[in-house]
Specification:
single chain; mainly alpha; two-stranded antiparallel sheet; 7 helices; about 70% helix; about 5% strand
């Protein structure tokens, strides 16, 4: 029978690739947190301008929306590194070590394929906005390639973290699903 591990952060061992990916994921987490803090500060400024100064706002709502979406996408690899995504471990708990390994490889492979597809199309979409110099239809008129860059960046870093997770399991630095065998 398997018992649940208390490990909550992806293990890197002394592997330079895993350490690099962990550092990039952590940096992405810090950037994501900074984007959330900026969105909160802009929201407070917007409330002050509208309700205290009785002025109008031009760019604040759009900036907060882009920052919130960007923080979500850029934060994906950090959440994966911390094992913060929703995980149903009923099946892995019921399996032995070898079937659990196979299931981990299958789910990671499927995740890598899906995120790779999302990366491909998000890059294509971002490149289209950059190439055609699309701007938002608001007074602010932000160049859309800037906020849309969060799509390929976030998915690329997420893909890298998923690949690092697979490498860690293959190199036996980490156990499949973080579960020890007993």
């Amino acid at each position: 029978m398997a018992v649940q591990s208390s490990v909550t952060v992806a293990q890197t061992g002394n592997n330079p690739f895993l350490r690099l990916v962990a550092a990039l994921s952590t940096l992405a987490g810090w950037c994501s947190a900074a984007m959330i803090v900026a969105a909160i500060a802009i929201t407070c400024q917007m409330i002050f301008v509208r309700f205290v100064l009785n002025g109008s706002t031009i760019w604040q709502t759009e900036a907060v929306i882009y920052l919130a979406i960007g923080a979500t996408l850029i934060g994906l690899p950090y959440v994966q590194r911390l094992r913060g995504h929703v995980n149903v471990d009923l099946i892995p708990l019921a399996l032995g070590p070898k079937p659990r390994f196979v299931l981990a490889m299958f789910t990671l492979s499927l995740s890598i394929i899906m995120v790779g597809i999302m990366l491909w199309y998000s890059y294509e979409f971002w490149h289209l906005t950059w190439e055609r110099n699309w701007k938002s239809d608001t007074i602010w008129g932000v160049r859309l390639w800037i906020p849309y860059a969060a799509l390929p960046i976030g998915f690329a870093l997420f893909l890298l973290q998923l690949i690092a997770d697979m490498v860690a399991i293959l190199l036996k630095i980490e156990k499949p699903f973080g579960l020890e065998d007993t």
